[in-house]
């Protein structure tokens, strides 16, 4: 977890590899640590890799939920985790 990650920057997420998950029938992405952090924090989609300008509970493009354990946290708590 790096404090230098610019959440909401809308910088494209760059997958370093991708793997087909046969059980879930989805692509799974290998992401750089800062990109994965943005997905974890709810600022990017882990499915279609769409970056968000602000925290969202689900992706507006594909409807994929952001990480539930983060979504349940109130915004103030998430902010503290970023510092
Ligand atoms: Zn998406």
Using brief descriptors, characterize the structure shown:
83 residues; alpha+beta; 3 helices; 2 strands; globular; binds zinc ion
Unreliable residue stretches = none
Task: Please summarize the sheet with the most strands.
Answer: 2 strands, antiparallel
Terminal CA distance reads 10 Å
Overall residue-averaged pLDDT value: 81
Bound molecules: zinc ion
What strand order characterises the main sheet?
A: 1-2
Q: Provide the number of structural domains.
A: 1
Q: Specify Rg, calculated over alpha carbons.
A: 12 Å
Order of SSEs, N→C? Answer: EEHHH
**Structural class, from secondary structure content?**
alpha+beta
Tertiary shape: globular
Helix content range of the residues, please? 10-25%
- Strand fraction equals 15-25%
Concise structural overview:
This protein is an alpha+beta fold.
Describe the overall structure.
24% of the residues lie in helices and 16% in strands. It starts with 14 loop residues before the first strand and ends with a helix. It is built from three helices and two strands; from the N terminus they run ββααα. Strands 1-2 form a two-stranded antiparallel ribbon. The chain is an alpha+beta fold and 83 residues long. It has helices at residues 33-40, 68-71, 75-82; strands spanning 15-21, 26-31. It has one domain (15-78). A hairpin with a 4-residue loop joins strand 1 (15-21) and strand 2. It is globular and about 35 Å long. The structure holds zinc ion. The site of zinc ion has 8 residues, from loops.
């Amino acid at each position: 977890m790096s404090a230098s990650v610019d959440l909401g920057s809308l910088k494209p997420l760059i997958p370093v590899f991708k793997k087909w998950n046969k059980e879930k029938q989805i692509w799974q992405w290998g992401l750089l640590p800062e990109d994965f952090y943005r997905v974890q924090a709810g600022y990017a989609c882990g499915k279609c890799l769409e970056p968000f300008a602000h925290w969202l509970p689900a992706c507006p493009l594909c409807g994929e939920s952001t990480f539930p354990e983060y979504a349940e946290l109130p915004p103030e708590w998430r902010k503290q985790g970023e510092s």
